Description:
By secondary structure, this protein is of the alpha+beta class. It has 8 helices and 10 strands. The chain has helices at 27-41, 53-60, 64-76, 96-99, 130-135, 175-180, 185-193, 211-217; strands spanning 80-83, 87-90, 105-107, 116-127, 143-153, 156-166, 199-208, 224-234, 238-247, 252-254.
Amino acid sequence: MADPRPEPPLRHRTARPASEGAAFSPLYRQIKELLVQSLERGEWKPGELIPSEIDLASRFQVSQGTVRKAVDELAAEHLLLRRQGKGTFVATHHEARVRYRFLRLAADEEGEGGRAESSILECRRLRAPAEVARALELRAGETVVMIRRQLSMNHRPTVIDDIWLPGSVFRGLTLELLTANKAPLYGLFETEFGVSMVRADEKLRAVAAPAEIAGLLGVESGTPLLQVDRLSYTYGDRPVEIRRGLYLTDHYHYRNSLN
């Protein structure tokens, strides 16, 4: 299985001319790929301003319109953020518009959402269970970091998350660091470990609350919960997080927009 450690930096390449054949992707998609490679290498850090479209067009020897189309797609995918009159920035989970992009929980009644409060219940290092190792593309027996977190809405426990991370990538991640952290969890991963979560796949199902989880949520054992299994990826489609969330949905629901 693949080693989860960061890959060596990729060499800069210029875009392929469109005349090289129909087998190649459209030119703007090639520029988009090159921009993602630059983000993956850390050429532009989260929160930093990227070069202007004119400068990027000169760099890749393409038209400004081609660059704009590539940047538009990256902005739509929340990898970049446009700010009127200021330019285009690398998305960061410290940014308000990005912070809750992966949290799809919404209050049933408008105005009842409140602020999400996070509490770390557990953090330990252990050998990866087989299912976790497969999903994170780790070798059997590699170390993972396991985190249990409680998320409260309006001061009421609402979500219990069990999170699994590759130990080699998240060296130094401890309960003390997590407890002292005041930023969003993905913001901490970004700042302290250089890992940006850029997309995720999720599966949802209804389950009955196990006794331990019911106790943490303050409900009876067997209470209906929504189970959300997430596999999150960083640049290069590299899986770096498994998360199983158990959601109490008596006053909240899971919301998503389909385009």
